[in-house]
Protein 1
Amino acid sequence: MLAHGIKFGKTVGIISPAGCDDAEIINKKISDFRNLGFNVKVGAHVFDKYGYLAGEDKVRAYDLMNMFIDDEVDAIVCFRGGYGSARMLPYLDLGVIKRHPKIFCGYSDITLILNYLYKKLGLITFHGPMVKSDFSDLTTRDSFFNAVMDRSCNYKIDLNSFDSVQVHNTKNISGKLVGGNLSIICSSLGTPFEIDTKDKILFLEDVNEKIYSIDRMLTQLNLANKLKYCKGFILGNFTPNENDMKEHNFTLNELIAQKILPLRKPTIVNLPFGHEHQNITLPVGGSVKIDFEAGLITPVKEFVL
Amino acid sequence: MLAHGIKFGKTVGIISPAGCDDAEIINKKISDFRNLGFNVKVGAHVFDKYGYLAGEDKVRAYDLMNMFIDDEVDAIVCFRGGYGSARMLPYLDLGVIKRHPKIFCGYSDITLILNYLYKKLGLITFHGPMVKSDFSDLTTRDSFFNAVMDRSCNYKIDLNSFDSVQVHNTKNISGKLVGGNLSIICSSLGTPFEIDTKDKILFLEDVNEKIYSIDRMLTQLNLANKLKYCKGFILGNFTPNENDMKEHNFTLNELIAQKILPLRKPTIVNLPFGHEHQNITLPVGGSVKIDFEAGLITPVKEFVL
């Protein structure tokens, strides 16, 4: 299920389902976001603070539900990640969301919501920048616009335009995308919010984690059979922890060679999505084709629905 | 199943199922450990280095298996934790271990092995100091000796002897202990090495984690129904991350009040086990009685077997 894309001038609902922020920053970033060309409606509790959370669990869920229900709101973009989605999810009413499908965008901690809404409702959600994000990078901005502003989701990702990208086991595949932040995906394992990766193309990114911690998480995903049945992998930004450059360590590439490549699935490494400056938008639940000869990731028909 | 306890002069097998270390440190710490009164036998790959691991996964498993098989070895104590048990566990032969039950001790990353051997074989294992640990604290040392050196496991923990200990929902209970390092327990969820906490008394500790990360892990355990069916909780050392003292934060006590106490189970907080100087030994799979009036944790009959 793909909700109607939005247009410039339409209303974006802004919520904070996870971490809180200071009012000055929130106001500044909402103003910047409005300047992208959207009208905005700000959730009642976006300015709340409860520890590191933007209000208590139930009020963050209340804001999210209200944005889906509100007919004046055409799409929902989260203000920021941080932590807290897992505490809020048990309070969502999925039936109500199903009757009001909308574009929903975020990443990092929001990974949990993206994949849960897709898994339970079939709603295609968007792993992409948030209101607090920096939209100054043109690739980031165009990718976001292309993904959320057109019902046909008519964007393509040209792998050749990114110098950093590496490819392995280059057999062309089609499949639905799921994924997001590796830590968050691992923190969903064993819970009702666990990601379903079977027959999917799994994309993963993380930031500021130590190499052994990335190893531990990939090992957990593997032991939980979350890698074995994927169609392929797309790995994004994995900015290592800067205090983790000591002598006895694997490099990220060594880790990928140990944990991902032996699975013999088509794999793209270093696609710029996630916590770095450049963060291209990926549709969770969207069907894509990866053509390695052409170096393209493109939406396929069922994605357009 | 409780293996025979050891005596001074008996042989302790030393292995490194997880992280590596420098030869100088290993030699020094093995010498110190020998001075506690034990003969030692050092695993063939304890000095190996493969990234942060003490050798490749299969050779670490080989060392562990060999120590169980070797009739000259009376008990097994891990050299250190770090990371790596999860990578090694798939290579163990449980049938062989079952035919050669032995005292097995460690903590931190070793949590995974302790709980897995208990869950699959019923073998009581020991969450306690390792060869690299500091045994200068008398409580640490005595607790270790009492736990591993007597088939009757004839030790008791006097809660009143620790100023830091707090108790909640003080209803006396009996049950089998499981648990250990919170991060490691969460990293087992969804895998074949997942901890079984049903009807158990769950003990947890962690070190150098940010408060939001402890929140996330307790939330995951709760959503995975790993807290709901416990008989009670024992929380140990939770030394917070020192860079995590910023403005918007919960305290550890606030987190316990939010995530643990509402479950209305008997709960002991701040028992000194885990990564700090004082680390008392707890038997994974051992049956204990918690008597809040007397302020005592004592083994019960089935534990002695």
Note: DSSP finds ten helices and 14 strands in chain A.
Protein 2
Amino acid sequence: MSAKNNNCKIVDCTIRDGGLVNNWDFSVEFVQHLYNSLNEAGVDYMEIGYKNSPKLLKGADSAGPWRFLDDDFLRKVIPNKGNTKLSALVDIGRVDENDILPRSESMLDLIRVACYIQDVDKALDLVKIFHERGYETTLNIMALSNVMENQLIEAFQLIRESVVDVVYIVDSYGSLKPNDYVYLVNKFKEHLPNKRLGAHTHNNMQLAFANTIIAAESGVELLDASVYGMGRAAGNCNTELLVAHLPNAKYNVRPVLDMIEKYMLPLREKEEWGYIMEYMVTGMLDEHPRSGMAQRDNVEMRDRVVEFYDRLTTPEIAHSK
Amino acid sequence: MSAKNNNCKIVDCTIRDGGLVNNWDFSVEFVQHLYNSLNEAGVDYMEIGYKNSPKLLKGADSAGPWRFLDDDFLRKVIPNKGNTKLSALVDIGRVDENDILPRSESMLDLIRVACYIQDVDKALDLVKIFHERGYETTLNIMALSNVMENQLIEAFQLIRESVVDVVYIVDSYGSLKPNDYVYLVNKFKEHLPNKRLGAHTHNNMQLAFANTIIAAESGVELLDASVYGMGRAAGNCNTELLVAHLPNAKYNVRPVLDMIEKYMLPLREKEEWGYIMEYMVTGMLDEHPRSGMAQRDNVEMRDRVVEFYDRLTTPEIAHSK
């Protein structure tokens, strides 16, 4: 725990990334209790959902309101905003820029744009729009473990010249080890000396918290986390662990424990995320967890770990995926 | 993942440390399947239980046979020993040295002696006896996070002059961070240049695997783990993660996945270990998990996380513990 950590900020993604688990079926009461808990705990940002457009996504009708955030609705949910800022994620091709109010009229402070490496240019175009409307911005490059260095170098050039505030190193598949994270952080620092960095980890191999604090030691400032780790598949770095770990005196773990006791433990009885063998296998193999999620959704197939491993590692089957 | 890891050996503690969860109530079939799985997976050692004497322990009658290993019994359990060596743990004051056959007549290869820092001298006396009977030996110094440096320096002198093969850095409370482990490994290397090192971690803050691989990068050679993390309270580093991570070509994760699917997932339905909030709190506070275990045993109290946290952090209550 070093003085370096003092610039770190926590971005809680429970609603946004956790929504991928329960189709954003969080009650207003749940989200309000979470906001108040995070605010009391000193957490810097709460990512309260996606700001994608329902017109641009199929299956939109069934999802909870946190998938398509609306400013009027948000004002009712959070009538008394505290120090915890609000964030939303957008995906390129799924956001209608006309939906984004100027920051002065919005509840949101931070808009983050997620993309794969080949779409960094499009993502930066969006970032520019949000930046001009007054928002803090981040660019979240996903699936970095599958990106070749030459692609990364090209992307760095675009990013260096852009207005984006923070660039995220996202371990989408939960396949990175601490050494890999340190390598990537140093690479990003070398090529993006004018940008701040963020880390978003997944817990497939129980390394989400470790990778996050090691990234912080290496100079990463924005640290993504979820309460009780709630997030797609293996989930994320746990907010309670980060709050307990970071040296900043403003952080207080007790309200996060309260949120876990009152809401997360009961929710975990109904919904599933965390260290689950199918996701350990996809993490180990550096793959998207979708094959694991499909197996977990099938009650007959669930927990057939060896069959799953064989399917993903037998060449003639794996190659046709 | 570096070439340094190539000297690493895995010591699976599922039966010994996992026995603390279920009072060593493992069937012979379970232990045989585990041995065969570990042997096929290339795991170097299986710690098959304690070699304490039932005469020196109360409550001995109710425990399974793995708490008081007997060589005749072991010969029946493992009729065809493979490459995986067998290990037993003893506690000082609880072992009768007359129970220990010469290694040439025993199924065991490795005897490990666990002690707190103030008993290192007594532990080394036992180590000497086992060493003279032909066993590989380790000294496992527990609760290092609560040891002052001057005590450690005194112990180092005794250890340097002893016959012990390997000295373990044990994070009994699951309170150490990666930086702490690196600090301790370097301290041990500096003072014990003639000894090999081991690491035994606990998963209270989801750092067991991370601390283990970071200790390995720093030069630790014997790595303790348990299948599916089974061990007291928050449990240990997961054998399957280590087997998947270490670069040695002899390791094969598939048999470990098979053990998990057939035996560990059903067992986890009945018995409890892992990332559980009470243990996260004791880890965070650098305390023995016994208060958490007591709360988990009480169905009325279980999951009252905030009350538990308050009890452990309110000065007038915490000081009387």
Note: Chain B has two domains: 3-270, 277-318.
